[in-house]
Amino acid sequence: MPDPNGFLRYDRRLPARRPVPVRISDWREVYPPAGEELVREQATRCMDCGIPFCHDGCPLGNRIPDWNDLVRTGSWDAAVESLHATNNFPEFTGRLCPAPCEAACVLSIAGGQPVTIKQVEVEIADVAAARGFAPRPVPAPSGRSVAVVGSGPAGLAAAQQLARAGHAVTVYERDDAIGGLLRYGIPDFKLEKRHIDARLAQLAAEGVRFRTGVNVGVDVTAEQLRAEHDAVLLACGALQGRDTPETPGRALRGVHQAMAHLVAANRVVAAAATAGEARPSVAVLPDGTPIDAAGRHVVIIGGGDTAADCLGVAHRQGAAGVHQLDLYPQPPQERDEARDPWPTWPWILRSYPAHEEGGERVFAVAVQEFVNDGTGQVRAVRIAEVTVEKRDGRRVVTVVPGSERELPADLVLLAIGFEGTEQQPLLAQFGVTRNPRGAVDAGDDWQAGTDGVFVAGDMHRGASLIVWAIAEGRAAAAAIHGYLGGPGALPAPVAPAAQPLAAR
């Protein structure tokens, strides 16, 4: 049984990050390995609650108390098995998920210190990776085939589940490499791409086929895919970035969607790694337009994960200065129990490693204009202080009179969220449409309104957490397995209508 006094004997501790001057000089991950002693100490803080609310915080249904206690006792093989029983890619979630399981930990009640679930998870995953991700034995071929369109975490999770059930799976990716946003949307200082490559080798050994550079709906039609496969899973993500076309000066050079900056940066980092170069070249858009922060005054609009990723990239590219703007007031340091009662996800100030590397955060402001330098290039942003309130379910933003000022800006990045999956030819060809949120609806069987065509991940849910993407990929795979007449049942951790834990 767990140590009932562990949380009394040990405080919450995380491994020290690499020093700022060192880590901004390269693109390696911010956190070094924690070390077995620290990990076992932190796992000991888990009480194995009678009702483990961490399970409710995570849609994957991870057996968190189980593998915490296995780590505490040094049973690493069993911990690896327990972790992978519910999560195909814990090395991804342990690095990228903001850990709603920790917000739901009993130890976080009344501002307490939750178990470092995310850190324990990634250390277990890294132990497994160090030993090699051995492919699991695959049963006799079922004679049925599935096309998975999109190679992000939802698509890859579904592909692995289906392949392990004996189905022939082909993953189609329009980019030149597999991984979706994991590959080109997430900077290496959060997720080094060797982790993706190790998993892809495992999937390939389990029979999954990969076809890159194939834009379904353009290079191959939906009709062709339906003719070649017994079922299709659409897992194309939610990459339609939210924009501000009404803001004066939006068309100026130097104003870009944040994802354009991240993808360009990731591509040059990947190219440098392949060539064995110490420093990547200047990041550019596909048309050759520079989108590099080197020597520039950068303004990032948005306060979430994507904005923080752009901040970290700008530091490593050598920005002259960075301002990160947030429409909302600065959140509190601790959970407001009246607003966000435990165990729901709280609205609090979240500081990422990139924030300790430099830059200035500015809260409760809105951009009034992107200022032209006279040649069509942005030179500044004009901002104003604002108040934000909800009226009849709508957000109302009011400018504070006399609060306007300018910030220098040579590069402006819009990180204000996503509007759903992109409008693309494959939608009409498969007979599916986007709903008002820009997502694709699914029935109770995960089908998208067309027989044999399924949908999962951000394409169905809208931009969300990686744990939800993997959970939906696993659940959609279970539905496809049943549709194909496969024996038994695959794990289905969530239903299409499932929602995150919230106060009612």
Could you characterize what this model shows?
Residues 145-473 form the FAD/NAD(P)-binding domain. Pathway: Amino-acid biosynthesis. Residues 24-131 form the Dihydroprymidine dehydrogenase domain. Keywords: Amino-acid biosynthesis, Glutamate biosynthesis, Oxidoreductase. With 504 residues, this protein is of the alpha/beta class. Helix content is 31%, strand content 16%. Strand 10 and strand 11 (394-399) form a beta hairpin. Helix 3 crosses helix 9 (117-131). The two termini are 34 Å apart.
Topology record:
Layout (H helix, E strand, L loop, with lengths): L5 H4 L10 H4 L12 H8 L10 H4 L6 H9 L3 H9 L5 H7 L3 H4 L13 H15 L13 E5 L3 H12 L3 E6 L7 H4 L9 H12 L3 E4 L9 H7 L2 E4 L20 E3 H18 L21 E5 L3 H13 L3 E6 L33 E4 L1 E8 L5 E14 L2 E6 L5 E4 L2 E4 L10 H6 L16 E4 L2 E3 L2 H4 L4 H18 L21
Parallel strand pairs: 1-2, 1-4, 2-3, 4-15, 5-13, 6-7, 6-13, 7-8
Antiparallel strand pairs: 9-10, 10-11, 10-12, 14-15
Helix pairs in contact: 3-5, 3-9, 5-6, 5-9, 6-9, 7-9, 10-18, 14-15
Pathway: Amino-acid biosynthesis
Keywords: Amino-acid biosynthesis, Glutamate biosynthesis, Oxidoreductase
InterPro entries: DPD_II, FAD/NAD-bd_sf, FAD/NAD-binding_dom, Glut_synth_ssu1, Glutamate_Synthase, Helical_ferredxn
